[in-house]
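Proteins fold reproducibly. Consider a sample protein:
=====
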Amino acid sequence: MVGLVVLGGSFAVAAPGAAAPAPAPTVRTVQVTSFDGTAIVTNFFPATGLTAGRRAPTVLVGPGWGQPGESNPAAPSVAGLRQQGYNVVTWDPRGFGRSGGAASVDWYRYEGRDMQTLLSWVAAQPEVKLDRPGDARVGMAGGSYGGGIQFVTAALDRRVDAIVPTIAWNSLVNSLYPNQTPKSGWGNLLCGFGSAGTNRVAPQVKATCELAATGGLPDAALEAWWRDHGPAGRLISQVRVPTMIVQGTVDTLFPLREAIANYQALRKRGTPVKMVWFCGGHGVCNTPPGQAGHVDALTVAWFDRWLKRSRSVNTGPGFEYVDDSGVWRGAPAYPLSRTRRVSTTGSGTLAFSPADTSGTDIAAQPATNAVRVPGPKSRGQVVGSPTLTLTYRGTGNAPRTSLYAQVVDTRRNVVTGNFATALPVVLDGKTHTLTIPLGAMAWTTGALQLQIIGGSRLYYPQRVTGSVTIRATVRYPVTPPAHTVSFGGS
């Protein structure tokens, strides 16, 4: 049984012996007691115009890391869906806001079970449309932390009918420690958000934050804990509900490759899935963002199709992206069918030291000290991840370090996607070859150039002084631009 404490709102009380009238829909805040006794503060917002005795599908909208659930009925994330005929439920995740417990980073053992409790509570609300007793017609939306919990919940509980995870992750290990290189810029920011105010986090999160301050890597036990906190592997294989993955082209915390991994896993299993790349996310959009409201319209269309079950709704092509000129384009699936690999090569010597740095904690920027490799001259767009093969020989005052690769638009003087890829190198004077995928992008060819650099502020500062002689080959996925799509994917 779900425990309940009313914190706000009002309820009609029937006279003794009288049949209870259907209560009028009302905004309310309650405490729902989860499986282990933890109080989860929950907000319920009925669909706009819903009258007593009527029911509507419901969307659960989760907040970002360190944040409470939205409590303002006029907030865009709440009001927009309500106006389209959906009840909206928000909540303070455990460890944040007014909820109890400690945040365990959307772990299926804790936050996942909290969501199962909330699903049961939602199904008991008089305004909620049901598929059967105890099973509400429910979707999920929300970004970042509120995106990650959607994969977890959908994997655990078949009562979820559709999800729209936005700027979420596939693997937190790959996101925070790509290629065994600490992404300390975002690590320090996330630690600050998690410890702000009255927030409480699990001991493993605290240990990771201590590492972020020193550039250290997690030991085997801590790494295993983080690997257990995302859809990669077992959980993604259990997600069967229609899923629209929304990811930011300039997201340097959870870059496009995280979305691609989730998308490909779902598509392989035959799960109805769509992927959308927009200019935003955990990062800064430095190019035209395209028509405002496009992603919101796609989200409503997705829920209309799968929650209202309206077969006449057009959800658009299976893959949509906004390119570097702000044009929304669409194709049946990713990767685009007419993609071909175009190779470029270059060589040089890079002397590097702790003085090498570029960019900010959340965005890569062109560097001065770099080995440069020309980009493809073929007309078209690079849609996806280039692949770098690096043959090198180097020495330094330490046996290992990381260099960084970034693709620069020399015409705009910006790094595509604001992203730099870590390249772990061995500095023993011997020849080594490393093949590694770079950050995905949707960018027009013609002015692209690869830079291999000694330091990026996305990562922990360079601590080694050394020199490497490099020969690099980059294979770009070049395609004719996909067809343009109008507002909302049609």
Confidence is low (pLDDT under 50) at residues 1-6, 8-16. The first strand starts at residue 3 and ends at 8.
